[in-house]
Amino acid sequence: MKQFLKKDKIFLSTKDYIASNEIFNLYLDTKTNIVWTEINKQQNHRKYYKNSNYLPHNKKKGLLSILYKISQNIMFSYKLKVLKKNLQPSSLILDYGSGDGNFAEFLQKKNISVDTYDPITKNENEDQLTDNQYDIIMLWHVLEHILDIEAAIATFRKKLRKNGAIVVAVPNRDCFDSKVYNKYWAAWDVPRHIYHFNHNSLIDFMKNNGFSLISRHPLLLDAYYISYLSSKYKKSFFPWINSFLLGTISNILGAITSKYSSSFYVFKMTRPHFD
């Protein structure tokens, strides 16, 4: 893993509330304006995902897991509506970091061709992807997890057809709920989240790696889910009420300032892989 970011300024110290209770430092690289989590590169990073509290890979049927799945399903049609603007009948999609595979299954039922690949449940070696070329590569809350992010983007460019698109969903570290919860904000999600973008730093990073922004779309339900987890981490009274109020405020302010808790972006490839 090549470290292209510097420790120009310590940004925050926070805890892994899901798996290990370890403390991690976040640093700001002033050149890129990317905040990043310092991790031990010699450790097996996957161990932080192997916990029943990690919902994307959680098979339990508790109330929070059920609500997580319900909100997931609500968003599927919204995501598909945006994707259709970039789809042709012959289009092939790669769902990279597909998790439980539910969204890919939803698309396949709509007669959309989708391949899935999850580096956590399989192997974090991009070379093990199929030889297929894709029209769209989707990363739903995945980019921030990838250890060697520049190498991964280079691989995605090789896998995209001419004029291909990449869909990236990430939390926004500048949103209202991140300011309220500070070190307890669930979307820090250290050490699983290695990179912490705001709107401009994500666009600049993608531009520097051969992609231009086409559109941005808020993920409004994320504000409630993140606020609920954050309230739990903070041991707040009545976390359900807190999450509803703060999630609603975050979305209202997001509509005014464009600093939503979470959004997904559609980028077009502007620079071919062979440059």
How would you portray this structure in words?
- The protein is of the alpha/beta class.
- It has a single domain (58-269), classed as Rossmann fold, CATH 3.40.50.150.
- Helix content is 32%, strand content 24%.
- The protein is built from 7 helices and 10 strands.
- Strands 5-4-6-7-10-9 form a 6-stranded mixed sheet, sandwiched between helices.
- A hairpin with a 4-residue loop joins strand 2 and strand 3.
- Helix 6 packs across helix 7.
- The longest helix is centred in the first third of the chain and has 21 residues, at 63-83.
- It is globular.
- The two termini are 22 Å apart.
How far apart are the termini?
A: 22 Å
Structural class: alpha/beta
Please mark out the parts with pLDDT under 50 across 5 or more consecutive residues, or reply none: none
Secondary structure: helix percent: 25-40%
Rg, nearest Å: 18 Å
CATH superfamily: Vaccinia Virus protein VP39
Q: What top-tier CATH class fits best?
A: Alpha Beta
Largest sheet data: 6 strands, mixed
Helix/strand order, N-terminal first:
EEEHEHEEHEHEHEHHE
**Overall structural domain count:** 1
